[in-house]
Amino acid sequence: MSDNGLEKLKKKIYKPGEQLGKRLERPKVFQPEGKREKVLTKKWREIKKGKLSPETKKRLKIVGICALAGFLIAVSFFIWQRMNSFDKNKVVLEIKGAERIVSGDEVKYAVGGKNNTNLTLYNLQLTFRYPEDALPLEGKNFIETIELSDLEPGQEVRIEFTARLIGLKGDKEKAEAELSYNPGNLSSRFSNKAEFETEIVSVPLILNFDLPEKLVSGQSFDFSLVYSNQSDVSFNNLQVKMEYPKGFVFELSQPAPFDGDDVWSLGNLVAGEQRKIFIKGTISGEENENKAFKAQIGENREEFITYAETAGTIQISQSPLSISQTVNNSTDYIAEVGDILKYDIKYENTTDVGIRNIFINVKLDGEALDFSTLDAQPGSFNGGNNTISWNASSLPDLEFLEPHQGGKIDFSIKIKDSLPISSFADKNFVVVSAAAIDSENAPLSLEKIEITGQNKLTTKILTHLTLQAQAFYYDDEIANSGPIPPQVSQKTTYTVKWRLVNRNNDLSEVKISAYLPPHVEWTGVKKPSDADLSYNPQTGQVVWQVGNLSAGTGVLSPVQQVAFQIAITPAITDVGNLIELIDQSKVFGYDNFVGQELTDTARAVDSDLPDDSRANSQGAVVQ
């Protein structure tokens, strides 16, 4: 459009009230579209009529073939992917068995697996874990692993495992299974797991106490524990564990205990069998106090497994004539060699009527007692049966004891300074004092009542553990070197020995420790070479872990000993002085019979070497 035409158009557009006319002609810019539409329409008409050039036909054929090939590839890939895809959730693994049983019953676990995938499962391995308290009937392994054949799609496998389940009522025993495999040609290994629980609803092993309802404190009595197997199967390797109340003193049993005084080995208990354990002992306690006895039956497999348990109670009642005793103001005094035992005996008429002609006897028993030291005035002592007696002739108050009247007598005796140890059976020494009060003329109102009062007091004797620390220059176990007496700036080595003697009770957890002064050097030489001996260079502490130490060590068998080497290099300031080689040594141990820790201390050792006479004669002070 010319510049004049453009100006005219602007005036028309912006002139008020002016009207624009219609477009005079179709813009030329749209003409090419029209031509293209005609060309495309023509081509489609040619295709419909089959009037194509050879070149066009060839091109269309190639395009069609390519499209068909692409479609077939896509379909094939979809089918291949569908055939080779793997979903482990389609591999079924389950355990079936009894959900509720009686303890001791056999349980069959059926472990089943099924392959619901499209792939074959290769290298199958089934692992089965029995419940913790199970007794597998085939073999002793609690975990069984089985190699299985290949599992085709849709194929199933079934394996059975049999065990006897043992446990308490209400226990839930869990079995577990795991199936691992390689699906198809996949290199990855997959696994499926399953669990199954069985509840124990009852226990066929029965325990019952046959206990008296009431006893007088200090009274000796018999009781029994009845155990039976009410199932249809045998229980093997059974044990019974007893828990006694405080104040009960075991005397004997039939059969005899397997371990200590509270564990019995029963062996096998066949179906329907019943047995008894007979026990004799004495019991002490306060009036109206309830004493609970407990028992468990089970099997010891590394640790005790309880199958059944029971409890029974005895009440301590008051005797018409009561008697009690203490030793050194205690009812559970632990004595030592050389101790003087001071017994206080209290007696009382607990009824509302007077009782005449009372007598009191105390029988003493124990190889550890030195009867030559007995002081029991005004009582009389019968050396034939080791019994002290009091009656009205020696104690006028016993002629007639008023209602609720009581009194007190005492005596003392010493434990030997050296216990009689001649064999390894001579250990666990005790002193037993059995006191009894009675009357020859019981009142008519008490005629049908047992008026005798009894009390037994057992005193255990702690073992005598002795530690000796020695140092030597001339020693037959470890060769030493350096000048004697020690000299400034010259190294001298010594042998330190720890020696242990344990007399009358077995010990456990025995340990010796001591500190080396800063000027003392640890050389690392020790005898025996396998001794559990350690040295801490930061603290200077030497520790020997002895462990168990039998009664009679150093008495019936050689002393327990360890030797180790140390060294010193004196300084100028040490001239004219003795040099400390090792500080005080301490031993700790646990007396298994008494149930108490004990210690002993050995003196510090210096270069004086009092146990090495040859070296001592050559001098001990630094030169």
Automatic annotation (TrEMBL):
Domain of life of the native organism: Bacteria
Location of the DUF7619 domain: 329-423
Keywords: Membrane, Transmembrane, Transmembrane helix
InterPro entries: Chlamydia_OmcB (IPR051172), DUF7619 (IPR055353)
Alphabetized Pfam families for the sequence: DUF7619
Parts of the chain that traverse the membrane: 60-80
Feature: compositional bias, Basic and acidic residues: 604-614
Signal sequence region: none
Disordered: annotated span: 604-623
UniProt-listed PANTHER family: CELL SURFACE PROTEIN, LARGE CYSTEINE-RICH PERIPLASMIC PROTEIN OMCB
Protein name from the UniProt record: DUF7619 domain-containing protein
Organism annotation: Candidatus Portnoybacteria bacterium CG_4_9_14_3_um_filter_43_11
UniProt lineage: Bacteria, Candidatus Portnoyibacteriota
